[in-house]
Amino acid sequence: MSDRRSTLFEDRTPTDRRNDMVEKLTGAARTEAIAGLDGWSEVEGRDAISKSFRFSDFAEAFGFMTRVAFHAEKADHHPEWFNVYSKVEIVLTTHEADGVSERDIALARTIDGMS
């Protein structure tokens, strides 16, 4: 018999994950979470965080976006982004929570690890 705890997330479909309750980060928890990120900042006029990335050329930027896209699809949490040549701008917010949630913080950390 396998240890069911280690496979709970992998066995869940994107629909299962979409139905999870997601809460917007507020107060000290929000401030602390965003402060713990490297280079991410709050978006003026929106409950979102953003960061700009620069690469040596378009191929490197596109490769980065592809790696992020595969992870985002698996996590069922997708960034808003804009790309021109070697620059990629990413905005994260959780629509189900109507603002920044722990999902955004986790994805931001993962994205930083891929850059």
Q: Could you explain the architecture of this structure?
A:
The chain is built from 4 helices and 4 strands, in the order ααββαββα. Strand 3 and strand 4 form a beta hairpin. By secondary structure, the chain is of the alpha+beta class. A 4-stranded antiparallel beta sheet has the order 1-2-4-3, covered by helices on one side. Mean pLDDT is 87; it is low at 1-10.
Structural topology:
Blueprint (H helix, E strand, L loop, with lengths): L13 H5 L8 H9 L5 E2 L6 E6 L3 H18 L4 E5 L2 E6 L9 H13 L1
Helix pairs in contact: 3-4
Number of strands: 4
User: Whole-number radius of gyration?
Assistant: 15 Å
**Lateral strand order in the biggest sheet:** 1-2-4-3
Alpha-carbon distance between the termini? 39 Å
H/E order of the elements?
Answer: HHEEHEEH
Report the major sheet.
Answer: 4 strands, antiparallel
DSSP strand (E) fraction? 15-25%
In short:
The chain is an alpha+beta fold and 115 residues long. The protein contains four helices and four strands, in the order ααββαββα. The longest helix has 18 residues, at 58-75.
